[in-house]
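To whoever is on call:

I kicked off a structure prediction for a single chain this morning and the downstream step that reads the tokens threw a length-mismatch warning. I double-checked the sequence; it's 319 residues and nothing unusual in it as far as I can see. Pasting both halves so you can look.
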Amino acid sequence: MKQDSKIYIAGHRGLVGSALMRQLHAKCYRNLVTRAHAELDLTDQAAVRDFFAAEQPEYVLLAAAKVGGIHANNTYPAEFIRQNLAIQTNVIHEAWRNNVRRLLFLGSSCIYPKDCPQPIKEEYLLTGPLEPTNRPYALAKIAGVEMCWSYNRQYGTKYIAAMPTNSYGPGDNYDLANSHVLPALIRKMHEAKQHGDKQIVVWGTGAPRREFLYSDDMAEACLYLLEQPEEKLPALFSDTQPPLVNVGCGEDLSIRELAELVREVVGFTGKLVFDTSKPDGTMRKLLDVGKLHALGWKASTSLNDGVKLAYSDYVAGLS
């Protein structure tokens, strides 16, 4: 990509999209195209077709999606599969119709089977049953990976499917009903500290292990993939395997350890109570990031530093 290449960022206001915007600005890309949902509904096929025909972007970062935690996935399964399938189908197809040079599709580590060997290699995709609590979302994202691969094979496109681990950071969703575990813990502990509560409740047993990647690191990795010359990515543009690459830090910790870390950063001195009647979800999801490391990229923000940055952003958003 060149500094004046026309780049469309779909979903630029979300956690992932806003991080991509910060990285693009930091790298001095200046021809960025964005549309808020009120301006462009990506589930509307005709609207997406008109947008691509008018704007003619050269590169596309597809970060727009309906996302949420266990509660949201369990409550709105139809919305999760319908909206995500519609968004990615419309954007990927119009990218091909309008000769986009390269597209990066953002997925999620939940595409992998529930009981995968750990750490999870890209080749484990479709080797076993999915976690039931987010199966509709995962199936939609798997369809997006397959769509990128299909267009590459049939039309010679250069579409990449990046699967980030749990991302967090500025612009995260702190709605307790729909957020992921880390932002939910930040909000719960901050409010408990403000109210002088003696304890907070954490869903599940605390035993599941999760990997977390600071959003700006995730965005840096995505741009790194988009910027690489084609000859450096032979495994991603192959007829024999999908254009799939894991994006993570390669380290995990238990939800209990995460809660203790957040408690320390926030300064909450109360007790952690684990509600074992609530679902744990998949017991472990650690990505194998060997492919990304081999390409020359590694995460640089520690979890402790990242949580401090995320908490500062959350507090700033309250004022």
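Update from on-call: the warning came from a stale cache, not from the record. Cleared it. Sanity check on the structure: The longest strand covers residues 159-164.
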